[in-house]
Prior knowledge:
The protein is of the alpha/beta class. It has one domain: Sugar-phosphate isomerase, RpiB/LacA/LacB (Ribose 5-phosphate Isomerase B, Chain: A). The protein has 6 helices and 5 strands, in the order βαβαβαβαβαα. The chain has a 5-stranded parallel sheet, with helices on both faces. Helix 1 (12-25) links the parallel strand 1 and strand 2 (28-31). It is globular and about 45 Å long.
Amino acid sequence: MRVHLATDHAGMELSAHLLEHLTRTGYDVVDHGPRDYDPEDDYPSFCINAALAVVADQSAGTDALGIVLGGSGNGEQIAANKVRGVRAALAWNLDTARLARQHNDANVVAVGGRQHSVGEATEIIEAFLSEPFSGAERHVRRIGKIAAYETNGTIDG
Length: 157
């Protein structure tokens, strides 16, 4: 599986760890930056580029997910969710990571680097990456409604 990774300055330590750890685990990790620490960086470009790459890969039939990191993960999740076709979920524990995949077929996970130890954040991300979408009809229906709104601006119901 290909994993697209992006961060801001607050997630750089976690990002470096994940790049090494996930690569060693067998994932094809693509780092969307930043490359250098800058406390004034603007995370939206990094996160949006990672999200665009996830959608492009998935559209081409490549198994891909994304990870966006920040101090809280909130802004990074918001930025990623501006990309059509992205369902980015903020995960703060194992349950929210797994449910994001099971129920929402989330394709990007956001994690706050200042909210968790490196070990805890790694476990959350591994749970997200390894959990499949349930495919349950009610979840497919709900995701379809979100996608329809994203495409044409109307919501059924």
